[in-house]
Write a structure and sequence with these properties.
The chain is α+β, with helices and mostly antiparallel strands. The chain has a domain at about 5-50. It has 1 helix and 2 strands, in the order ββα. A two-stranded antiparallel sheet has the order 1-2. A hairpin with a 2-residue loop joins strand 1 (about 10-15) and strand 2 (about 20-25). The relative contact order is 0.10.
C-alpha cells in the first residue's frame, strides 16, 4: 500500500457468487469499505460487551474499562 499510486487503485474489483456480480468497486473503494466494516463490527461488539457487563478489551491501547488508564 505504501508504494501504491492513485492509478493502482483506480481499476475495478468485483465481488461475485456463482458468476453473479454482487458488488463492484474501485480498488480504493473496496479497501475503504473493508476498513469501514471492520470499524462498524468492532463498535457493535463493544456495545454487546457493554450490554452484557463484559469489560471492553483495549484493541489499540487501553480501553476506558482499564482502571490503570
Amino acid at each position: 500500500m505504501e508504494k501504491a499510486t492513485e492509478a493502482d487503485l483506480e481499476p475495478f474489483w468485483s465481488l461475485k457468487y456463482n458468476g453473479n456480480k454482487l458488488a463492484e468497486w474501485t480498488k480504493y473503494a473496496a479497501i475503504r469499505h473493508s476498513l469501514n466494516q471492520i470499524t462498524h463490527h468492532r463498535a457493535q461488539l463493544g456495545v454487546y460487551y457493554r450490554l452484557n457487563d463484559i469489560k471492553v478489551p483495549g484493541s489499540y491501547g487501553p480501553s476506558a474499562d482499564d482502571q490503570n488508564f
